[in-house]
Amino acid sequence: MSAEKIMHSLSTLDLERNGFPELRGGNLGVRIACTDEERDAAQALRYRVFYEEMGAQPDERTRRLRRDIDEFDEYADHLLVIDHAISSGAKGVVGTYRLMQGDAAQKLGRFYSSNEYDISPLTEFPGRLLEVGRSCVDQAYRGRAAMQLLWRGIASYIFLHRIDVLFGCASLPGTDPEPLSNELTYLYHNHLAPPALRVRALPERRVEMLRRDPQALDHRRCLAGLPPLIKGYLRLGGYVGDGAVIDTQFNTTDVAVLVKSELLADKYYRHYERRLRDALD
């Protein structure tokens, strides 16, 4: 079955919630948030991880609500990892990823990444875009299972909505780029996006990524020093943009990441072929 047939068949299946199949792995499932309570649970989880655990700086409203909320949430879909052993609803949310399609960004007027990068190479790209961000998993669930489910959920979403390019800002911890010099140099030298897709940090926010002699780097050590999410993008054949950006609010150094969707589709092709065969028999 071709990838195009898979996408068509998935879109015509009697899917469970909001046209999106819940994917399961043991007690864990991944699906799109369906209710205000589930979206609130995702924002509460983001607050716990970003502000209480990782040292982000809340404004007065964020501190009072104990929620990570911004204007993009209203326009986005919120992918959830749910532990059904706790609850099949909001109380079971243990992971989340925010997904915003190009059509939704047009309604709002911009993508989140445009705060840090000139993304015109993407917005001028003749295809459907998906911006991903605000990824986090509860500390007790940061193993292979939850992250695999998030990736499977994103792959399913890409199939359903016929996305061509996935992109977003991914973070390295801390706001001092010097301790991250090896990792930033490694990313720039080995995974820089081709010119047609190369987003660039806004000039007033740009931090140089090429900070060391690339030939002197220990690549294995550099990879080990990267956050799991960035390593996941690289394993899928992803690229990075030109220039890093310091995000003082979230206590991070950000890089732009992008993946052409066929790379993600290829990885999960057999999974969906099996799933469709079972569903259509």
TrEMBL record:
Keywords: Acyltransferase, Lipid biosynthesis, Lipid metabolism, Transferase
Pathway where this protein functions: Lipid metabolism
Superkingdom of origin organism: Bacteria
Pfam family, one: Acetyltransf_5
GO biological process: lipid metabolic process
Residue stretches in coiled coil: none
Enzyme Commission numbers on file: 2.3.2.30
Assigned protein family: Belongs to the acetyltransferase family. OlsB subfamily.
PANTHER family: GCN5-RELATED N-ACETYLTRANSFERASE, L-ORNITHINE N(ALPHA)-ACYLTRANSFERASE
Protein function: Catalyzes the first step in the biosynthesis of ornithine lipids, which are phosphorus-free membrane lipids. Catalyzes the 3-hydroxyacyl-acyl carrier protein-dependent acylation of ornithine to form lyso-ornithine lipid (LOL).
UniProt protein name: L-ornithine N(alpha)-acyltransferase
Source species of the chain: Gluconacetobacter entanii
